[in-house]
Write a structure and sequence with these properties.
The chain is an alpha/beta fold and 369 residues long. It is built from 13 helices and 13 strands. The protein has a domain of 143 residues: Rossmann fold. 43% of the residues lie in helices and 16% in strands. Strands 1-12-6-5-4-2-3 form a seven-stranded mixed sheet, sandwiched between helices. Strands 8-7-9-10 form a four-stranded parallel sheet, with helices on both faces. It has a two-stranded antiparallel sheet with strand order 11-13. The radius of gyration is 21 Å and the shape is elongated.
Amino acid sequence: MKKKVLAALLSVAMVATLLSGCGKKEAPAEPAPTETPAEGEEPAEPAEAEGGDATEGSADLAGKKVGVCIYQFSDNFMTLFRTELENYLVSLGFAKENITIVDGQNDQATQSGQIDNFITQEVDVLIINPVNSSSAETITDKVVNAGIPLVYINREPDEAEQKRWADNNWDVTYVGCDARQSGTFQGELIADLGLETVDKNGNGKIDYIMIQGDPENVDAQYRTEFSVKALTDAGFEVNELFNQVGNWQQVEAQTLVANALGQFSNDIEVVFCNNDAMALGALQAIDAAGRKVGEDIYLVGVDALSEALENVISGTMTGTVFNDHFSQSHNAADAAVNYLTGAGNDHKISCDYVKVTQDNAQEVLDMVK
């Protein structure tokens, strides 16, 4: 029901990319536009992965064992993701007691041991959100050698690793959104305001600070790069005042932004954060410094956490980007089913992000709560 509500929301809001773009497909190098339903036509549901209905043979799924590795349970977005993933797996016919979800505690050695345990337990399929995407080759080798299908989520292995899956015809896929799109949307949220609005110090440039997530995570890399690229592509001159790693954490971001505000004061016009948790920390620092979002500084994040959406509605955040945990988790579960039923998958299954402003934040909040 939530997916239908969101599809209607996106159609009404005329968002550039529809969630109906989610499904089993090879993602282009850059985010590609999706078709908008014709007038009077119902928005399409996210496409099922090619090869048949993911629920086909669901009567046999109750006895299948699913191992799920999450890089860190304390991550707000991954909490939403894993909760929806488990609920959807159960709705497909898996027995809840056969779904085991473990916390990697943001430590690759810990997660590697958990993967070894799942292999020893002879789980039927593994869904892995790697601590370090650079460890994907090692993870893939051990899981494939054990004869277990593998679905990567959220943190994308690099192109060379994905090419290995295709070259060897392995039962391995990645499900997630293209982080370049989320960065682009962040930059567009600022560009749409116009230089006259953002350029408070009158130097003809957009002076910004950047708070990054884990620098090994491709999402952090792309969001950092493409948020700024969207501004320069729109013809704006930019000036980076400060760029530090907040590791996706609210408290770390609060400290970093407080330091930046102390150093650069009113010269900071925009704060880019690679996720909403860090944006919430940034907002605390902005408030403490006596600055006001929407008047003398602008703040954007990614994920569309409930608290961030409430801030967008109230104007204490400029905007965010909805990281669609519904479509991502559902596509990951469907991919697992396709492997178990022999339908198979492509090696990359992509979903779209959604730009969130005051115009559509309430509708998104109603859906994610």
